[in-house]
Amino acid sequence: MADNDQRRDANTATESSGRPGVLDRFFEITSRGSSIKQEIRGGIVAFVAMAYIVVLNPLILGGSQDVAGGALDFAQLTAVTGLVAGVITILFGVVAKLPFALAAGLGMNSFLAVSVVQEVTWAEAMGLVVINGIIIVVLGATGIRTAIFNAVPHALKVAITVGIGLFIAFIGFVNSGFVTRTPEGPPVQLGQNGSIGSLPTAVFLFALILIGILVARKVPGGILIGMIVATVVAMVIQAFANLGTVDDPVDPDPLGWNLSAPEIPSQILALPDFSLIGAFDLVGSFERIGVLAATMLVFTLVFTNFFDAMGTMTGLARSAGLQTSDGMFPRIRGAFVVEGIGAVAGGGASASSNTVFVDAAAGIAEGARTGLAACITGGLFLVSMFFAPLIGVIPMEAGAAALVVVGAMMVTQIREIDMSDFRTSLPVFLTMVTMPLTYSIANGIGVGFISWALIHAMSRRGRDVHWLLWVVSAGFVLYFVRGPISAMLGG
Fold this sequence. Notes:
- By secondary structure, the protein is mostly helical.
- Helices cover 65% and strands 2% of the residues.
């Protein structure tokens, strides 16, 4: 029944003489087996799964003072976070025509807040992000990034997808409080002191089971329905329990909500303040800490940006069924270039580098297959600038459940890998487990590349390793030891 509805909707889009026919032809909706309704639904789900970044990015960037004692304003960060994510995601949808969404990358903004601004000012740090973005654009436009992508063996590309599935599932477990750090002993534990004792985590489990049932029964919009129902349940619980938040700097509640409590806000609308646009300094960091040290920071930013995005795109394209037999996907060069522009725009607006978000997999799982879904997501990000207080109503626990479900979907692709040859199985295994265990897609890719090259070379199969993979592996070695190198340069 659902398939018939999709075909009917797709035919209507193609046959009518109005705008739907234009949308269908431009975004190739029918040819990718989708429909306008499906794309809209997928775009909404992707936004709901990513909406937390509008609140979380300002918390991360605004919570650290730079080397000169300066800080970024929370309200201004909220405005530019939504603005850049919206504009770049729409641009990506129009140019690349893929159902991916971009926003401020969590790895990058954390690196800026924790490490970079201890050496330079915020304006100088954002200048480094802009330089990083320019390099990414050049690598994408010249085809170098595509060439590196082609050099990656098929088994590693699949392993990257599976690793991302494990990674986003782990993100969901951590964001929901289902998995937490321990004060001592094992690195992680179940809930609080080994048991589930918080209502927010119970909401996560309710959402996880509900979404899982809806998806298993192939209910259209199952992920979105589950997230909405979970949000309503969370609001009812909050109305009676009046819980705080785990990360409240004044009065943290260890059994509270992650990031924000699901309450009806006193203020729904807020006018955005774009004062941070253009507040960056391209050369100041080179003058403050020296050319070598600043170059090392740019190197780190480029490697993180480059391979996080490449790995995420690989996983999302496979999830959407858009990859060809050689591992490519439509308009790959345009996708790489726009992603680089996202880094430039993010630095230029002090929102941090914008990159493809793995959370967009939730929209793909809901049926998104084209750039129309990305445009919907981007449009909602632009709207979020005015409704930032309302966005905060959605508890992270609801989005976390969707991530776990999507992660489970992505892990099923491991069936495509032939694990009988240990030269393949070990690098594949290391790629998959390193991503969640180090909380980094780039780390997983680097470990996979290096182990693949070395194991094949040392087992007399070095000719099977593309020379570009050797080059990138050498770069990853530098990336992994960048701390000691930076220390030596600083000394």
